[in-house]
Amino acid sequence: MVRTIVAGILTSLVLIGCASAPPPSELEQLDYRSRAITRSDGDIKVSASTLSADESRDIYGFPLAKKGIQPVWIQVENNEDQAYWLMSTGLDPNFFPASEAAEAFVTTHKEETRDILVPHFEALAFRDPIPPGKTVSGFILTNLDEGVKLVHVDLVAERRHRSFSFFTRIPGFRADYLGEEKLGEAYSDDEYVDYNDEKAFRTALESLPCCVTNKDGSRNGDPLNLVIVGSVDDAFPALVRRGWRPTEQTWHGSVMKMIKSGLSGDRYPYAPISPLYLYGRSQDLALQKARDNIHQRNHLRLWLAPMRFHGKPVWVGQISRDIGTRITIHSPYLTTHKIDPDVDEARTALQEDMAYSQSLVKLGLVNGVGAANKDAPRRNLTKDPYYTDGFRGVLIFDVHPTSLANIEFLPWEGREGGFIEQIHGRDAR
């Protein structure tokens, strides 16, 4: 335990010397209404935006984030002939009623403040119903998230239901994410290859590099064992829905959180990860599922590839499970996370996880990584050993819900094309 703490401190001291706050993003220069995302279904239009800690304090007059409360602004324009009701539990099963949130800021010795605060909070709340021909807006108070929030809006009327999902980004969080604008500049239109044939797409995936590299591309690292087909409207909401969270950039704010987490044992579900390289750049997006301490997590890195499949973006990635930390001379930070050498397990866990997301429509396996067995493992850039069956997991998403029973399997690898074989590869029993 002492060694782990010392390692964490060493890492943090090194990072402090080179970390600085990134400049404010365009997102942070927009107010919550300006950056709202809008979706339409028939004659119903819904807009949604998640407030930052500063915005919620400015609007409510109190630091809601310190109480774990996060307002989500919703606006519904109803041009149908029936009234609709918004289901608050669809946004968050443990949402905060306005009166409960207000009570958290009532001073116990000044009961008269309740008579002021409760009406104030209730005036800001979203109020049902949404009458025909009317527009209603207001806030639903949800539990606090950082970085991104998946906002799901269910509207119900007699014998009618409208459902909307929004992948909203939250200002104030320095996500390890290249951003839509820069991603749009990653390739020119003529560099993209569009695939509509599964056989040709399979061949393209098998031809990808086996592994990530160091910055100059001179050494191979962890295997590129993941392909995700989908966009910010389907694949990423599915990941967030299943508890995957963005990682934070390495800057002095995240470094201080790492120190606090390492010393106190508190969770830091957004802890930074080190850069690895593909296509001459570090990861475009990093996500993780953290356990209750900073040393253990399942994490993935994704790069936008210069290809599309049936018009959808294709992301190539690396996934592995961190099972501890150790001191090493093979990292500029002097410490590193130790990975589980069975990297196929992390790939399998993600495939099973996404099967429950209701957005996964197809999955399969392709060659391309190259097999390495336990007796002759390969090693990543920090010299951790790993072994693999050599397959990449392929996950194809869609915005429309798909049940477990309706997931299709790509007939590429796996002995019989069944669920277990498609997820686990040839070693399935």
Description of the molecule:
With 429 residues, this protein is α+β, with helices and mostly antiparallel strands. The protein has two domains: 27-169, Sandwich (Immunoglobulin-like), CATH 2.60.40; 174-424, no CATH class. The protein is 24% helix and 31% strand. It has helices at residues 2-18, 53-60, 88-91, 98-103, 112-124, 180-184, 198-206, 235-241, 252-264, 343-355, 419-424, and strands spanning 37-41, 44-50, 69-78, 85-86, 134-143, 148-157, 160-169, 193-195, 211-213, 220-223, 226-229, 245-246, 277-278, 281-282, 285-290, 297-309, 312-327, 335-339, 360-367, 378-379, 385-386, 391-397, 408-409. Strands 8, 11, 12, 15, 16, 17, 18, 19, 22 and 23 form a ten-stranded mixed sheet that branches. A four-stranded antiparallel sheet has the order 1-2-3-5, with no helix packed on it. The longest helix has 17 residues, at 2-18. The radius of gyration is 23 Å and the shape is globular. The two termini are 38 Å apart. 41% of the residues are buried.
Task: Summarize, please.
The chain is built from eleven helices and 23 strands. It has 429 residues and is of the alpha+beta class.
Q: Main traits of this protein?
A:
Immunoglobulin-like; four-stranded antiparallel β-sheet; disordered N terminus; ten-stranded mixed β-sheet; 429 residues; globular; alpha+beta
Mean pLDDT level: 83
Helical segment tally? Answer: 11
List the uncertain runs: 1-21
Q: State the secondary-structure class.
A: alpha+beta
Determine the strand fraction and express it as a percent band.
25-35%
- Radius of gyration equals 23 Å
Tell me, briefly, the overall form.
Answer: globular
For the termini, the CA-CA separation is 38 Å
